[in-house]
Amino acid sequence: MADIIRIGLIQSKNDVDGDEPVHLHKEKAIEKHERMVREAAAKGAQIICLQEIFYGPYFCAEQQPKWYESAEEVPNGPTVQHFSSLARELGTVLILPVYERVGIGTYYNTAAVIDADGTYLGKYRKQHIPHVGVGSSGCGFWEKYYFKPGNLGYPVFETAFAKVGVYICYDRHFPEGARLLGLNGAEIVFNPSATVAGLSEYLWKLEQPAHAVANGYYVAAINRVGTEAPWNMGEFYGQSYLVDPRGQFVAMGSRDQDEVIVAEMDRNKIHEVRDTWQFYRDRRPETYEDMVKLLP
Predict the structure, then answer these.
(1) Mean pLDDT score of the chain, rounded to an integer?
(2) Is the pLDDT of residue 123 over 90?
(3) Where does residue 275 rank: exposed (0-12), middle (13-18), buried (19+ CB within 10 A)?
(4) Residue 295: per-residue pLDDT
């Protein structure tokens, strides 16, 4: 593997009103994101990540069974199959966050990892599922209505260019999984998100750089942009970024524009930081048992 890897992050607004049919959302968003993936590849990106459930609005703003229609099997659904072909054509690794259906009616918030030859490597299912209101209009992050908690652990995928881990949106508030991704060998962790201005915005540039430092890897944080009708529950504030193991921002996107951010990850910096700060050597896991006990 080369020492320098070019990382592509795609942030985008949703262009279709939430009252429109599910199939229209998916059609328009997939067309748009394919164009943006091609743009990222043309700029030299070797690993590209899209935003959380990229092919529609952040529908968890409401509790409406219509959105179950957007779920697909992973990897056999049409969206993963389509982007697997695209990854093979472009020679890029893709992190593809989708709404996953298993069997008749079990649903997960999932990211498929596709290698540069189009091979499906596996998936990560979002572990921590929020369920909280936003403002006084009845909107919120009503994710427990749509998703079961993930059950596949914290896998790391050895792609053509780097060892990749995935965390999804609300997961970023939990340091335990971030550490496990490091212990499992991640060199870079992608966090595709859908988060609005307000309560947690100040944490956007705080928590994930801290994960990068504590675990000695790069973090790529992706957030959508714009305000989504008819809910209008807040501004998705973009600012997708790549941060290095020293907590330094390598690149950052705008707050309110569709954008393809491409920046370099340096594997040598991972080794340098881990040799300087021996956090893995100095861990004391035998003293942490109380952390995983259930509260009464």
Answers:
(1) 96
(2) yes
(3) exposed
(4) 80
Residue 169 annotated among the catalytic residues of the structure? yes
**Pick the catalytic residue: 49, 60, 139, 169?**
169
Mean predicted confidence (pLDDT) in 222-246: 96
Residue 49 is among the residues annotated as catalytic for this protein: no
Compute the radius of gyration of the chain from its Cα atoms.
18
Residue type, 69: E
Query: Which pTM value belongs to this model?
Result: 0.97
Task: Give per-residue pLDDT as tens, 146-198.
Answer: 999 999 999 999 999 999 999 999 999 999 999 999 999 999 999 999 999 98
Decide if 52 is catalytic: yes
pLDDT reading at 136 higher than 80: no
